[in-house]
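re the bet — no i am not wrong, look at it urself. input seq straight from the record:
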Amino acid sequence: MEPTVLLILTLLTSFLLLLVRGHTKACGQLPPGPRPLPLLGNLLQMDRRGLLNSFMQLREKYGDVFTVHLGPRPVVMLCGTKAIREALVDQAEAFSGRGTVAVVEPILQGYGMIFANGERWKALRRFSVATMKDLGMGKRSVEERIKEEARCLVEELQKFQGAPMDPTFLFQSISANIICSTVFGERFDYKDRQFLHLLDLIYQTFSLYSSFSSQVFELFSGFLKYFPGAHKQIFKNMQEVLYYIGQSVEKHRATLDPSNPRDFIDTYLLRMEKEKSNPHTEFHHQNLMISVVSLFFAGTETTSTTLRYGFLLMLKYPHVAEKVQKEVDQVTGSHRLPTLDDRTKMPYTEAVINEIQRFSDLAPIGVPHKVTKDTLFRGYLLPKNTEVYPILSSALHDPQYFEQPDTFNPDHFLDANGALMKNEAFMPFSVGKRICLGEGIARNELFLFFTTILQNFSVSSPVAPEDIDISPKEIGFGKVPPTYQICFLAR
């Protein structure tokens, strides 16, 4: 009799334990998602068109918060404006950790301000925000630098005399020069061969970063790192950019005047010197190198790619460009360049720039986050260090906030009286504690470059507007617009 009772008790206990485990899994562990296979994760549920399409399809089945296994590791997806804001804004501290992107991890290794975590991130961000602010408030403000660069650009575009051209390298040059003047203390000529080579490396790297093969690498980096692929080329390109930055840092060391720091590198070197006796300092050579490469890369590629997408959209929708020109003419006339003070008087132009950013959707998957502690979110328990992808594309195309989310329409940002309207779903720079460090400078650049170009030139395409293809060339962690030809015709 006793063994039977014991057996029944054991079975009952096991059954109860299974029930309890099942219950905690449903209520208190990771959000639901497709069942993963050992090692392969959710590979079988992935769409051939890439991660973003895969996540959007899974969202239809599992809702706005779900778990996907990228290879063996679980990642929580946040879709839609409300879910992203609840996490990154309402629980900002808990979601302020930074995850990794496998193709750039061997170079960045958690250094620099973009991919750092914990005290390193806090120290570098505080320093960078203060330094960038000081450099912008100096004798020549950032606005003056952007206006001067815009003048140089107008002169350069006039040389083409309306002939068709690919604007990629020029848009890269003007964006890079603003960040270079702040970080390296110099601007470069548009014909400077070394400068153009660096810009080409950045362009190629961004394209590879956004490619399908980089997305596959994200799933199985532990295995694929031993084989050729985009990751090897990204590593090679970034090493070359780092070599150039290393040379620049050495020149700065040799010519440093402690009483008169010229730029970000000088200011950082002075801080390094000040903290050299602190064995735990974050102000060391490695963090300087990766911080500079991060600023250079982010400051160049995001603004230039937005401008590239913006002018492609102006070719596709010429009536929008004409309306912007009309507003610019009314406010500035042709006798002076636009200034940042003109912004408030140009609601339509501002709405167009916002809509360009929304529609171009440059970081559709966002930069990965992770939770800094065990975190309760919408009834689920996310263990410390769980990776989280805020799918920014799902906010920028949120039908609850944008009437025609898949259509380019500046009215998304205008009220019934034509005044500029704020929109909670508009988060091209992300939101919360990890919001892009360069948001302010990027917005200033976009406004001044965009208005100055359209004040001085009309734009046209060798291709009829209805035949212009605006679908991206690559879409993954980044989004790359197609290459195209444009004519800048002096007004």
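see?? The domain at 3-490 is CATH 1.10.630.10 (Cytochrome p450). told u. also The two ends are 101 Å apart (CA to CA). so pay up
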